[in-house]
Please model this.
Amino acid sequence: MAHSWKNTIKFVFILFLVGCQPEKEPVFKEGFIFQGETQGTTYQLIIAEDEVNFTKLEIQNLLAEFDTVLSTYIDSSLISKMNRMEGSAFFTDSTGYFKECYEESMDVFHTSNGAFDCSVFPLVEGWGFMQNIESPLNKTKIDSILQFVSSEKDKLHRVDFTDQTIHLTKIDKRFKMDFNAIAQGLAVDKIAEFIESRGHKNYYVEIGGELIVKGRNRSGENWNIGIDVPKENEQKDGVRRLESILSITNKAIATSGNYRKYYVKNGKKYAHCLDPRTGFPVNHSLLSATVISDKCSTSDAYATVFMVMGLEGTKKFISSHPNLKLEVYLLYDLKNGKIGRFKSKGMKKYFKD
Model:
């Protein structure tokens, strides 16, 4: 899955492996680091233990298998076949990746009142985020595309699952799916599950900035995660500056933002974060949204949701959905060259002094 799939660019976290060693905690002086390329970006795994019970090849094979199901950049992938089909067809997915991704996407779609929508693929194509276009879309063109963008069941499509079999029916043949805003997070979850199945309890898994951390780092501490300064002019000489550092364990983190990826046409800047309800790129003060939850797919999806909702919409959502147990850190433009900050109540404990 290419990094350019994303409707919002995902900030790459910076990992810190040093720090004071707390008393009465296990100290891991040895560790194993796995790095490579996947899904159009990079991945990094760290096992903060004295031995490792898997190989890099096993990780690469798992990631490749994930792509065969959910990558829109692979013509032979399951989702690519689904996007090309018309009418009704049966597919087999022995991995279960599609079902898990689809069902969580539908849940987030309904919970967010459509701010998250996996049927956004035609809009992504229309706006040229997968290829350049000569001019931005006008309202007439967007309205025509929105006729076949909706994840509501039985409106444009139906999906039924029976064991490993998927029965997809397209009520409108133009219906196409894109799981870019959740699949990378799910890939992180699947790697973490695999690592735990091999007996590991202290690890870090990151793909393109989406990550999950468990246990302790190699210094016996919580994992320290840096968040970039989300301002275009703050990145000097190609070096990214840190906005803040989180001290965290046993959680998943994702950050989405708009400022680095956009294009300018006729003097107007168009962000890569699309609102699937209007069909237009978002236009608000929110620069980035960091989300902490128990699953990386959940953090990934809601980071995108909040970039669509904006600052006030996100505040209201968090207040009215405590059951989701999401913690957020929002950075927004104050229009005077400064950055405003909002932390949910439970987020504050993760920040290092």
Summary: The two ends are 37 Å apart (CA to CA).
